[in-house]
């Protein structure tokens, strides 16, 4: 018998798309492309298990065998279910509400509006116990305490007023253990929206009840303008005077070169080029005050920095092994919080934060090489692990946890706390983004009405028409060629997911601002610390003023096929987004001298032509 020919990449891609359509329940029928896409989003099934209750939706189901060492679904995300009526209502609004740009003043967010003290937006605490209790009795007591916490939280907040937050008690137990083990807590937030991810209740619990110090790590500063970084740093200092604050980036000077590029460029292929590890070291030196010998950590940072500066050389990954410990059920055994700080002369750093703030990337950067897999999918880290950075410094990685707040759920989705692939209704979040960023002009979208009427008008004519969130998604589907598998209609659901992923990855950058930023903008733009932030981002002051250039100067052809520039950047959400290219140095690109890329305006107008 003749052997079957192996499937080509196009055939595999087509099969994958058909499987997705079947999973979503797409029938491919409908009077128009818009109606067909409406049915697609509405019939998408939840990723749930048989034991799921009617109120909680379990997300990120992972395959596993009963003979495995542990259940990977034990710590998956648990969010409160939304009613079908609410989903349909938001979908209707997305189709009918005309988008209007909001004033810049509304981008200013006060942390006390997100976490009002009178609403009881704390987090579940581990109940008291004694050694006479059995482990089973302790677990039952924890479950009862957690139910009481939820009852009190819902009694003080009307239905629908709370944001998405974690309902999985197993994940909260991981946080309890990490806080108990840690001497210093690294609270990592995304600089684009730090107040969303800094619960004051946890800060006061760590510094008050546990008597430990917190270092706030403002991560991903390469995605934010330097004046805004300084403004956020000063705002957090004014709200929490004793808080240590450090700016950090795992990608200094490595922006997206195009809007549709899947991964950020790496000028060198290592993790130890990150900006900020030395500042974390200095903060820990100030906190420990000589009680822990941190010289080995300092020497490691210096060695990594020297190795990165040498051409075609990187730290020898075999020269210095990293001791790693996995903690599963053994970490949940009865153990009291250690009252002794820096036990055995070892500093334990606990890394905690919301999903998608870059905790794993921070750990990889501190270690100097990849020890933790990185993904844009919330809930990627399943249980906490410890890594010995040196003989006297230990890092502890905790799964991402979403605390209850009063923030808009659409903004939460844009912040990356909810898996985009699991969204039942992504259109309202797209509308939220379009009202706060100039998406239409940047993407050069043509209004669907113009396409249906076969009129050939300039993009300015499209912008003058009334746009809805649904129109934006349909225009993007038409531009990118997203079609349903059977009827070949515009795949609006996939287009909406694509736009949300571009926003989460920082290609469509939405940055919130601290209160009063608009009034004090000139002060922040001329702040004396500005050169320091620019240097941390891996840029120079001259580059700041030369970011907006034409494609001819960029040395990149706007006629390059989109398949080569994109490679379907929205197709592999569950992959390790920042892990490729770590084994080999990046080839030098033939760019003209003086070539620069504007880090903050990564969606230049002429890029999407």
TrEMBL record:
Taxon lineage: Eukaryota, Metazoa, Chordata, Craniata, Vertebrata
Annotated stretches, region: Disordered: 1-91, 538-600
CP-type G domain residues: 172-404
UniProt keyword Lipoprotein, yes or no: no
Biased composition (Basic residues): 1-22
SUPFAM superfamilies assigned to the protein according to its UniProt record, in alphabetical order: P-loop containing nucleoside triphosphate hydrolases
Top-level division of the source organism's lineage: Eukaryota
GO molecular-function term, one example from the UniProt record: GTP binding
Bias kind Basic and acidic residues: ranges: 66-91, 581-591
Biased composition (Acidic residues): 549-580
Gene3D superfamilies: P-loop containing nucleotide triphosphate hydrolases (3.40.50.300)
Keyword tags: GTP-binding, Nucleotide-binding, Phosphoprotein
Protein name (Swiss-Prot/TrEMBL): Guanine nucleotide-binding protein-like 1
Organism: Collichthys lucidus
Keyword Protein biosynthesis applies: no
Free-text function comment from the UniProt entry: Possible regulatory or functional link with the histocompatibility cluster.
């Amino acid at each position: 018998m003749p052997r079957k020919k192996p499937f080509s990449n196009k055939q595999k891609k087509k099969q994958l798309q058909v499987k997705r359509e079947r999973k979503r329940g797409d029938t491919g029928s409908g009077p128009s492309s818009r109606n067909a896409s409406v049915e697609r989003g509405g019939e998408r099934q939840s990723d749930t298990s048989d034991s799921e209750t009617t109120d909680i939706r379990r997300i990120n189901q992972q395959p596993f065998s009963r003979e495995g060492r542990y259940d990977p679904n034990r710590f998956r995300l648990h969010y409160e279910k939304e009613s079908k009526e609410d989903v349909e209502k938001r979908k209707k609004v997305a189709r009918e509400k005309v988008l209007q740009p909001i004033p810049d003043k509304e981008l200013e967010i006060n942390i006390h509006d997100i976490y009002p003290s009178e609403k009881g937006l704390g987090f579940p605490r581990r109940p008291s116990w004694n050694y006479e209790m059995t482990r089973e009795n302790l677990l039952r007591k924890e479950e009862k305490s957690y139910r009481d916490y939820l009852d009190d939280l819902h009694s003080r907040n009307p239905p629908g007023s709370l944001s998405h937050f974690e309902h999985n008690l197993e994940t909260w137990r991981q946080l309890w253990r990490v806080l108990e083990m840690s001497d210093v807590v690294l609270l990592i937030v995304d600089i684009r929206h730090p107040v969303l991810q800094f619960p004051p209740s946890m800060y006061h619990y760590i510094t008050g009840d546990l008597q430990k110090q917190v270092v706030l790590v403002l991560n991903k500063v390469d995605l934010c303008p330097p004046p805004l970084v300084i403004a956020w740093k000063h705002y957090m200092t004014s709200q929490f005077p004793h808080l240590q604050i450090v700016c950090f980036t795992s990608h200094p000077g490595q922006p997206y070169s195009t809007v549709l590029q899947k991964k950020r460029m790496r000028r060198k292929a290592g993790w130890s080029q990150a900006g900020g590890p030395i500042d974390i070291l200095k903060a820990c030196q100030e906190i420990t005050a000589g009680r822990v010998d941190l010289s080995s950590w300092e020497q490691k940072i210096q060695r990594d920095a020297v190795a990165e500066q040498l051409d075609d050389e990187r730290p020898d990954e075999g020269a210095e092994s990293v001791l790693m410990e996995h903690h599963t059920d053994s970490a949940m055994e009865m153990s009291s919080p250690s009252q002794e700080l820096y036990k055995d002369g070892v500093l334990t750093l606990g890394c905690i934060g919301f999903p998608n703030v870059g905790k794993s990337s921070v750990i990889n950067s501190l270690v100097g090489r990849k020890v933790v897999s990185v993904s844009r999918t919330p809930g990627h880290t399943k249980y906490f692990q410890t890594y010995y950075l040196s003989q006297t410094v230990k890092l502890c990685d905790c799964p991402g946890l979403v605390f209850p707040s009063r923030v808009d759920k659409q903004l939460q989705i844009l912040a990356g706390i909810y898996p985009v692939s699991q969204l039942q209704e992504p259109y309202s979040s797209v509308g939220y983004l379009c009202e706060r960023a100039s998406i239409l002009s940047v993407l050069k979208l043509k209004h669907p009405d113009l396409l249906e009427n076969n009129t050939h008008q300039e993009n300015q004519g499209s912008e003058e028409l009334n746009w809805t969130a649904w129109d934006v998604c349909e225009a993007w589907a038409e531009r990118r060629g997203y079609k349903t598998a059977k009827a070949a209609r515009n795949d609006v659901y996939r287009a909406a997911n694509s736009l949300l992923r571009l926003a989460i990855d920082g290609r469509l950058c939405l940055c919130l601002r601290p209160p009063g930023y608009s009034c004090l903008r000139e002060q922040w733009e001329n702040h004396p610390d500005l050169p320091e932030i620019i240097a941390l981002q891996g840029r120079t002051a001259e580059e700041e003023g030369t970011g907006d250039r034409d494609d001819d100067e960029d040395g990149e052809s706007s006629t390059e096929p989109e398949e080569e520039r994109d490679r379907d950047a929205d197709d592999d959400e569950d992959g390790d987004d920042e892990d490729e290219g770590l084994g080999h140095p990046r080839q030098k690109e033939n760019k003209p001298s003086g070539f620069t890329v504007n880090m903050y305006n990564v969606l230049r107008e002429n890029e999407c032509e």
